# Entry
Amino acid sequence: MLKCIAVMTSGGDSPGMNAAARAVVRTAISENVRVWGINNGYKGMLEDDMCELNSHSVSDLIQRGGTFLGTARSEQFKTTEGRQLGLANLKKHGIDGLVIIGGDGSLRGGALLAQMGMPVVGLPGTIDNDVWGSDYTIGADTAANTIVEAINKLRDTASAHRRIILIEVMGRKSGWLAMMSGIAGGAEYVLVPEVKFDLDEICTEIKASYLTGKRYSIIVVAEGVGSAVDIGKIVAEKTEIDTRVSVLGHIQRGGSPSVEDRMKASMLGERAALALISGTSDVVLGFDLGKVVSINLHDAVNHKKTLDPELIRLARVLA
Ligand code: F6P
# Structure
């Protein structure tokens, strides 16, 4: 049984990180285990920016996006000396286990700490939904809802003007978020880095659909595909249809978490604290088919989650 653990968030923030950290803190306290919060991710670990938390420290948080612990990127943590300094800071405070909430890069950092002897349990926290072994990541549902809301609004104006509108969404390396929101938002096309597409063919199809009375076309573009502004220029030229582009940006990362994100983050936070306290390490807890699952941390960071071919197919059928 561990006596003192810490929780941190790292990488891009995501709605629901607060709910997960809150659950870690309250679970630890209910197990009579001390719990610390590390501020600003690995940067804070190296700068010894951490403090002990109590139940009130995580009040008024479940409904908030972002992360009360803060998050940052740290170049120094990528070096062995940096990580040794981080470990020394944790040990100084008697911290003997760590819950890390973040995306694949952050979990990779956790795997390195685990190899150096620090017990680590990871939670998938990213709007990108790209952590291997889990069909869910904290924040992706809220972000997808934000995008769908934007698509609804863009469709209104696109339809009024008979325009094509491209909406660029996040996902530098992964098309999951674009695919989820494209299908749920009823987009005509979803362009993702994982799937080759033929812009000529798309433009021909759009032109033909306008000739038969269609009033709008929504194209969701994952940022990993390239700039929607550039793609929009080509689409406008080839179709000769009035085209506009909307780059959603960081709006999609913020906001109050959805019920799904609050629930799942809370479940994962509790399970992570219990697992860590009881001596489990080197795992990521995620969801598979609605159930909490435990994934080997090293497997999770060494594999790339692929985009579900069923979703790619569905997006095409329903367009
Ligand atoms: O959190 C992951 C992510 O949202 C990516 O989809 C996106 O490319 C990136 O973060 C943006 O990061 P930053 O906030 O550093 O611009």
